[in-house]
Design goal:
By secondary structure, this protein is an alpha+beta fold. 21% of the residues lie in helices and 44% in strands. Helix 1 crosses helix 3.
Length: 117
């Protein structure tokens, strides 16, 4: 696997596009809000029900773990069915080419680059 670069592009109207550039590109979209030095990102709803259901059935989760499909979905994806993923960050540095953030939940620091695509 090659180098990983995470790019983020804000449209100025509350929408963003995020690109994770590796050997394959992953694109995510959603809404954002800036409150002082806090950045709140809410990803668009992704319906992973079909993929999670295949795993749930293939690994016989109900019998082996005793979990409902809804619980397994939440454990697998990090969100409940029908909810959008929300992440909150503190803005550490905001430069023209880069944005340095600290995730409030995990305390990890990340650097995002301006999209050039």
């Amino acid at each position: 696997m090659g180098q990983i670069t995470r790019c983020l592009d804000f449209d100025g109207n509350g929408r963003f596009i995020s690109e994770l550039i590796t050997d394959v590109g992953i694109i995510e979209e959603g809404d954002y809000e800036v409150l002082g030095d806090k950045l709140i990102i809410i990803y668009d709803l992704e319906d992973n029900t079909e993929y999670v259901k295949k795993d749930y059935e293939m690994f016989n989760i109900k019998k082996n773990e005793g979990w409902s499909f809804e619980k397994y979905y939440e454990i697998s994806t990090g969100v409940k069915i029908g909810e959008r993923l929300k992440r909150e960050f503190i803005i550490l540095k905001n430069k023209t080419e880069k944005l340095k953030l600290k995730n409030l939940a995990t305390k990890k620091r990340i650097t995002l680059y301006k999209n050039f695509s």
